[in-house]
Specification:
Elements (H helix, E strand, L loop, with lengths): L2 E2 L17 E6 L5 E9 L6 E5 L13 H6 L3 E5 L9 E2 L7 H15 L4 E6 L1 H12 L4 E7 L12 H12 L5 H7 L7 H8 L9 H9 L9 H11 L6 E6 L8 H8 L9 E3 L6 H19 L4
Parallel strand pairs: 4-5, 4-7, 7-8, 8-9, 9-10
Antiparallel strand pairs: 1-6, 2-3, 3-5
Helix pairs in contact: 2-3, 3-8, 4-7, 5-6
């Protein structure tokens, strides 16, 4: 598999971001390897909080949350999905599949030997992370789902998603920073928009960003449908703590929190939260607040 690697100088002096990079290698499934970047902050012997980002962001999205979680005594691990951030970017759109991304993140969990994980997932972070929870339940202690879901294609994805998917395929130049700015309730500073654009020096680096909207299961015939249905059967048996923390202004995932609360046993009795004045990327709009919700959730649900 041919891949691109964003020059390191693109990540220098990013606004509000001062974390040391870490790297590991994963099998690209074609006889080679991909380099995956991740943040690893806080005490190494603490139970990990795993922050999974979505499309088209990277772990920069969590920069406001990491210090709050570390101050509360937690270890924070935040990988960049291949195709995003400081991770390698496969060069062909066909290189990007749902299953490969589940496998690549599973490799990260195994190589870092993460256990007792509190998963915090948003957007594609949930599509991947909830699969990992279902398939590796022994590694996870809790889940915080924020503006995400696990689709099977059995239900209409909604007009907002369909418009986004159409836009992503038709726009001549894929404007990553502008897209994220448009999915927040606040107006992002130019320096923040530049930070979201940093991983992508030109359009050739954006094959993953272009392809991800097409990978969301939107029909029952989707290649990921069978495994997502199986994951739901596992999640319907999940007894460990499960919290939804959705924002009040996200047309893409609105209502998915109620479905998870009804179907996942571990959601019963939890202090499910609606984050006020938050868009799809609620980590940008209300990052510190969401981090404090996570801290409170962990404290209220200690290890058994």
């Amino acid at each position: 598999m041919q891949s691109l690697r964003t020059p390191e100088d693109r990540f220098e002096n990013l606004d509000g971001y001062d974390f040391a990079p870490h790297y590991l290698m994963v099998d690209d499934t074609e006889g080679g390897e991909l380099r995956v970047h991740y943040l690893d902050e806080g005490p190494s012997d603490a139970a990990p909080v795993l922050l999974l980002h979505g499309e088209p962001s990277w772990c920069y999205l969590y920069r406001k949350m990491v210090p709050v979680l570390v101050a509360a005594g937690h270890r924070v691990v935040a990988p960049d999905l291949p195709g995003f951030g400081r991770s390698d970017k496969p060069g062909q759109r066909g290189d990007y599949t749902y299953q490969r991304h589940v496998d690549w993140m599973d490799s990260v969990l195994q190589q870092l030997d993460l256990n007792g994980i509190t998963l915090v997932c948003q957007d594609w972070g949930g599509l991947i992370g909830l699969r990992l929870v279902a398939e590796r339940p022994e590694r996870f202690a809790r889940v915080v789902a924020a503006n995400t879901f696990l689709p099977t294609g059995d239900h209409d994805p909604g007009e907002a998603f369909k418009k986004w998917r159409q836009f992503s395929q038709e726009v001549p130049e894929f404007p990553v920073g502008v897209i994220i700015d448009g999915a927040t309730t606040t107006t992002l500073a130019p320096a923040v928009i530049r930070a979201y654009d940093a991983p992508f020096p030109d359009e050739s680096f954006k094959e993953g960003a272009r392809q991800f909207p097409l990978l969301v299961p939107a029909t029952p015939e989707d290649p990921a449908t069978e495994k997502n249905r199986a994951a739901w059967e596992s999640l319907k048996q999940w007894q460990k703590p499960f919290l939804t923390a959705f924002s009040d202004s996200d047309p893409i995932t609105a209502g998915a929190d109620k479905v998870m609360q009804q179907l996942i046993p571990g959601a019963a009795g939890q202090a499910h939260t609606t984050i006020v004045n938050g868009g799809h990327f609620l980590q940008e709009d209300q990052g510190e607040l969401l981090a404090n919700v996570v801290v409170g959730f962990i404290a209220a649900n200690p290890p058994t």
